[in-house]
Structure formats: structure tokens, C-alpha cells
Design a protein that fits this description.
Elements: E1 3-4, H1 16-21, E2 26-32, E3 35-42, E4 48-54, E5 60-62, E6 82-85, E7 88-92, E8 99-102, E9 109-110, E10 121-128, E11 134-142, E12 150-158, E13 165-168, E14 173-179, E15 186-191, E16 202-206, E17 213-217, E18 225-230, E19 233-238, E20 245-250, E21 255-257, E22 277-281, E23 284-289, E24 292-297, E25 302-305, E26 312-313, E27 318-320, E28 323-330, E29 333-341, E30 347-349, E31 367-372, E32 378-384, E33 391-392, E34 401-405, H2 419-425, E35 430-434, H3 444-447, H4 457-471, E36 480-486, H5 487-498, E37 504-510, H6 531-535, H7 543-549, E38 562-567, H8 575-585, E39 592-597, H9 607-625
Parallel strand pairs: 1-33, 34-35, 34-36, 36-37, 37-38, 38-39
Antiparallel strand pairs: 2-3, 3-4, 4-5, 6-7, 7-8, 8-9, 10-11, 11-12, 12-13, 14-15, 15-16, 16-17, 18-19, 19-20, 20-21, 22-23, 23-24, 24-25, 26-28, 27-28, 28-29, 29-30, 31-32, 32-35
Helix pairs in contact: 4-5
Amino acid sequence: MVKIAQFGSWESPLTAKTVAVAGVAPKWVDVHDGVVWWAESRPTEEGRVALMREGPDGSPAEVLAAPWNVRNRVHEYGGRPWTVLGDTVVFTNWADQRIYAYDGSGDPRPLTPVPAREHGLRYADLSPGAGGTSVLCVRETVTGDRPTDVARDLVEVPLDGTGPRSLGASHHFMSGPRLSPDGTRLAWIGWDHPNMPWDGAELCVAKPGQPHRVLAGGPRESVCQAEWETSDSLLVLTDPDGWWNLFRVGLDGSAVNLARCDEELGGPLWVLGGRWFAPLGSGRYAVLRSDRLAVLDERSGTVTDVDTDLTAWSSDLVAHDGVVVSAAGGPQQEVAVVRLDLGTGVETIVSGQPHDLLDPAYLPVPEHRVFTSDDGRHIPAFVYLPRNPDFAGPPGAAPPLLVHVHGGPTGKVTDVLKRDIAYFTSRGFAVAAVNYGGSAGYGRAFRESLNEQWGVVDVHDCATVATTLAQEGVVDGARLAVRGGSAGGWTAAASMTSASTYACATIMFPILDLTGWTSAGGETHDFESRYIEGLVGTLPEHADRYADRSPSNHVDRLAGPVLLLQGLEDEVCPPEQADRFVASLDGTGLPHAYLTFEGEQHGFRRASTVTAALEAELSFYGQVFGFTPPGVPVLELRS
């Protein structure tokens, strides 16, 4: 029998621990000699990233046992950490950031030197070098004590252990070193401050020892992937017309769009080594149309969606013999490594089934909606309503709403199953995940609608979604909350100090002080140290804007209680900002809580952290909204 209970207080089989241990997210998928390889995070192993491959019987097999952790910290977000050369896998190891080679016997052997300072040399975006006897990659060298004291170059690392050989540097940031089929040229992508790679990035090509030439891209054109097609041409994702489309670019600089469309077939280069397209042969290519798998046919100039229930494919596309392999998921299917035969439509999960398959009756079904701002802009969002077959809310009541703000801010949310959202919807919450102005996936004009408007457009768009749902009676307008991490934490905090929409907020590993989060302020890493110039404005011309929008300067304006969650080893959004914010809150009388987590960097990877954070968040909402969530410890609020 269905029980009637206050929204938010429902009991659910989806516990915080269930959510935490399930975060075995596969990534960095590739295929070598027909065998699928990938890396996967292990929350129950302190967030270790394990290297996996398809075993002889088709089941997943671990290549490297603990403590090997196949991860790197280039740009602090990392990049493709492994490649296979014949019988040898070459990979980066988190503990010392060195490159190792492993042929399946004995212990992995190091190929790069011990750095003079801990993590002082980092390597990412590994790809095969000449003759299969070396790897090409990006090297990051820490040159001083400030977060921005970093230099980068492209290097070749021989398998014989003779050490890296620098190939030079064209830009402050580089990605995607690729050797031409004839071995005579190297291609790569480069960009410089103050641009982020999605603002402007160039495709460079050079012969060894000669100056490079720029074949595509520029200050207002962004190359995000380039692969050699022949020794005389490359296939390139770039956006001269405002949309990432697939081009054929010749060594003479000629460029032909293979299928002109107002669609995003690429994405923001947050981590190094993304693959949004893969050749299928005969002028056909597997591509991602805003994360959905499609086939581009250059003969007809068309992009056609593939018939599959998997709606979100990762930028790990690889194809062989008409078969596409990548990590993918859907609204009720968690992300897994999938092999899809385009000829037969047969899908095979390569990475194995989750250890605890969830009952679909408790999983929310997202509704894709497009809201309209008061100035006529479109705001895409996914709306999740409460779903639990054992409970219903009181007659005439509406559920509380959590507005989920993605990070980036040049990021996006998709409709793939997210256990943390299901954790709340199965307890009687509604959730709206908003692709506010500035999000990726909707073209350059949409991305740039956030330029100089960070803390304004994002706040306004999220509030528009919340208030519209409340006006429609879908949710309880008196019980609205906003939650987010990183840039989403910024928007959550900015919402609470510049609007009266929400009753409370959960602010995770956030940016709170804009002036500190600059190259001069010294409180963020090199990669994003000038990102803010496009999002807010340059200094000192816009110093007042920095001060006016920073939540840290307006604790007195907070619209309600806040919960802050912070990793203590975060180099992107360091704990100093959250520390100062909470210190300003203490003694104000406003209820708040602050939880910090040892061993966590930017984002939470450990099962114990995720469990504690979710239970604290649920208890927090219960205290603010007036219900008692069952089965979780009571979070102590201070004032």
C-alpha cells in the first residue's frame, strides 16, 4: 500500500552509500587490436583510477592492481593517461606523476625521471610515436611556487628509458600531439591566455626542427580535435561558423566542411584527449551531436542520429569495422563501456553490469523543457519529479525543488542517469538541472551569452526555471533550494547573495571571491587563472564588478541557510575561500554548516566522502524545510 508522507521524508532503497560506491565511472576508452581498454574510477579504493581491458572471455579484467592509479594532474583536470604500443601499455601514475611502461610481466618500469619537487613534472594526452617505440604527450613543468608558475612543451618519451625529448612549444597550452601516417609531421592544438580552448585554439603542423604553421583556428575559432586522415590532410573539429563541425583540412590550409549544420559535433576541451568523432570508412564518421551518437555522411552532407536508447555518449569515440565503442548511458542506464554494431544495432556492455542494479521504479524520468527568460532567451533544463512506488505526498501538496547547477561554467548537464539526483527524487524532491546561458552544446553564441555576465545570467536563468515551476504549481515555491559544485557552487552562492528565490543552498568546492580567483590573486591554477577575464571583465577596469558580484563580500545578504562542502587538497577552488566565507558567517545568527574532507581534490572521488556529503545535504534540507529524513545522521548547524 502506498504511504502518504511529506515530500522529502520518504524512505528509499537508494541510500547515500549505494550512490557513493556506484561511482565506477569509465573513461578514456580505446581499442587496440580489437580489444577494448578503458580506465575506471574506484570510489571504494579512495578514488583510485584502475586500468581495465576486455579479457579473453569478454569479461572485464584489471590490468594494474592497486596501488597503481592511472591518472595525472595536467591542468589539474588531467588528460588521456595511457596508450598501448604493441604488447606494452604506457601510462601515467598519480602518486609521482611519472610515465611507466608495463608489458604484463614484473613491475611497471618508469620512463620519466623523478621530479625535483613533488608532482613537479606531469604528463598527459599520450599517443603513439614513430615506429611504436615511443609515446608523444604534453609535459607540464612546475617552475615556481605560485599556481601559475607552470611551463608546457610537447615531448617524445622513448620506451627504452632514455628519457623525454622536448619537441618544443608553440603556445602556453597544447593538446593532441599526433604523428602523421608517414612520420614526417606532427600536428597539435594550441592556445594562449587569456583564451580558454573553447574561445580560440589553433591547429598547428610542423616538420621536426622547423617552425610550425597554423592550418585552422584562431582567436575566435576553436579547434577541439584533429586527427590525420592521410599524410596530406587532417580531419578537424572546429567552429568558424559558430558551431563545432567536422572539416577536412589540407596542408595548404584549405578547409571543407563535410556536413554543414547548426549543431555541436564537438565540445569544450576541459581535459586533454577528447574524441568526439571517429572515421567509419567510405566517407562516413561516427560523431556526437550534443552528446548523442550520430553518423555523418560527407557524400550527402547529412548527420543522422543512431537509433539507440543511450542518449549520452562520452567524448571517447573509437570505431573499427563498423563498430563504435565508447562510454555511454541513458536516463535509466548508468554510464558503461559499450560496443555498438551499427550494422546490426546490437549493443554489448563491455565493462560489466553495475554490482547493484537499481529498480527502475525508483528512478526519475527526466523531462526536457525549454524555459524562456524575461528577455526572450531560451533556457534548456531537465526536470525530474519525485518517483517512489511506495510513497505519495499529501493531497494538494507540492514537492520541494532542488535546482542543480552544473560546473564549468562552460559545461552542461545531460539526461544520463545520475544516482545523486535519484537519491533525492526517490525521497520526494523535484530536481531541475539547468543548462543556463554559457553552457556548452548550443553553439558559440549561447556560450558567449555569459561573457562578462557570470553571476548575472547564470543566476537569472536558474531562478527563472525555479520560479516558473513554482508558478505552474509543479513545486512548492516556499521550498526552493539551489545546489552546485565548482562554478555551480559559485552560482549557488551568488544566487543566495543576489536574489531572494531560494530558501537555502548547498555550495560545494566553490569560487566565492573573484579577485582571489585570478592570476594576480593566486587562488586558482594556471589553466583557469584568466578564464574570469572573459566571464566577468578585465582588471583593474572592472574591479567594482569583481567586488559587487563576489558572494564573499555579501555574507550579510544571504537569503537563507547554507551548507558548504570542501575538499582540502583542491587546487582549482582552494579551501581558503570557503574558510574565509564561513568565518564571516560565524556569529551572524544565520544557520550554516561547513564540512571539509581530507584527501579530496576538486570534486569528490571517495565513497566515504560522497556518503557523508549526501547525508549531510539531506539532513540540511530537512531542517530548513521542516521534515525529518529517516536513516541519516542529523547535521549540526551553527550560527
